[in-house]
Here is the input.
Amino acid sequence: MALSGSRATEGKAGNLTTPRWMRRSSMDQRRACTTRHCVNAMECDHRRMNTTVKQPFIRPWQGRPLNGDVHRAACSEGFTDLQGRLLAGRLRSVPSQGLRRLVMPSSQDVPRASQLPDIEQAVTAIADAIERAQVVAIVSDSDCDGISSASIAWRSLIDVFHVDPKRVHVCTALRQKDGYGVSDGFVERILELNPRPQLMITCDQGSADQARLAKLVEAGIQNIVVTDHHQIPLEGPPKAALACVNPARTDSSFGDPNIAGCAVIWYVMAAVHQRLVRRNVSVEPAASMLELLATAACGTAADCVDLGASFANRWIVQQGLARIRQMREPIWRAFDTLLKGEWTATSLSWRLVPRVNAAGRLGDAMRGVEAMCAVDDQSAMAWVEVLDQLNTERKDILAELVVRATQMAREQQLEGTKGLCLPFFADGHSGVHGIAAARVVEDTGLPTVCLCPSESDPDKLTGSIRSVEGAHVKNLLDQIATSHPEFELRGGGHGGAGGIVVHRRWLGEFADAWDHAVAQALQGVPVAPRYHDGALGGKPSPDLLEQIEGLQPFGKGFPDPLFADTVEVLRVTTLGKDGKHAQLDVRFPDGSRQRMVWFGCCTTAGGLPDVEGVRTIVYQFRHSNYSRGPGYDLQVSEVMS
Here is the structure.
């Protein structure tokens, strides 16, 4: 398969050194560290010398509040009490179609492609390009959503519409070099493609890139179709694009603005398929497009999109998982060697998505696209091995960065900062900043941006943002860009996540503006606690687990259940060869004895936590393939008391 695109140079962005103007004497370094944008905040001990008693706020645990109307509706529709409680803790209201239709939607419950803005222009341009044998470029973001989107576009064109692969380019953004969106560097690589594309389709990006798209049009790529799901900038959709298919547009009549980028391109290509059929063009049957929902399920599970109130997202993930389990594609058979038959939205999010994401986080997302588009078992297995190795490297990088980010965040908390800005000049890595920011948000409940120098231009900082309810990332960035045009801030995103590029000379001012904007957005709003679902309400059993899994998929907006039971911990023993994990033998209130596992709880090999006695434990109740077990695991998240 001849997928095109530049290969990224491997290596950490953190190898860049601090410029001379930011180097200070040791005393100046200590003085500088009292600002939240200090370049040496983690190397000096100034804060530690001056803060001996006050401790940073850590989010407490709290039982999830239940919506009585939802609980009553669930019981009336035949859900069990446990299922009713879980639904009542996740949904704010009863949908007009009823809870059954939301939990397990059909194709009749999801919006139509015809409701997407600019869909007619997009479909016409793509269908015309196919019939006229034009050269097409697919350009996508570097995360799992972008990789999934590019894979759907490629396979639609090649496998379903029978386009000659020699006439299709695939280019992915280089996270460490380019930062967010269709960057200047990305434009240069697109213009170097040979043969020059006559139609360009963006996937999971482009809505905020008018200036760069205009350069492409001026250079001769006249037809640009943007497919995206990120928020539209204040100036509106990019005028340089022939079409901007984005359900987040204010003029969109599409009933669900929360679908992922991979869902948008799937909708577009499904509509192209219908158009080509009407034109009597030879294409594969419509069932071939439905097969691509498997790939869309991965991107949807990966991205920050709602799985609670969104019929479309739930339908896509459920339909995709159903097709993955049939093991008709080489990539799913290859990944099954790692997932061992456990194909749920949770396993996608925690075990498959990180490996696909690792391709873009640590260099070149094209490796993820080639893996997802593998045509035989041998190449699919080889690519999965590559992705697995990259993910191991990613975890090692992340572990170190999270330690530093957590300390920086807690020091800023002591200063009363509401919007955390964590710059990493010496050892940052833009490939994992989004995950690090998410970990900090989970710990503190405060919107967080992680920044480091761009690999292609050290004078610019690229950043990943994660936020909380009430602090909409895209709205905050728009507010800052309007108030501070001198920043020349470039970025975008949606409610819970986003990315930015800002010149490093404005770092201090941006940190202040970010803190001010977040403080205003969250004024009078208490920091949200971490929620659990209360006691399981019965002895852990395969039957209760089946009830829980009957509500899948879980994800953003519909989080995995976390239970909190007061149990007696009878014994704690080491689990695993590396001595980092523990097994807890506990007695539940009904007298039954259960085995709990606590991963990563030992700070040193064999250093078991002292938790014997009566404790309240927050845990996940999950399926297990362990042959000698009961078919489930009770995985400890935290021991509260």
Summary: Confidence is low (pLDDT under 50) at residues 4-53.
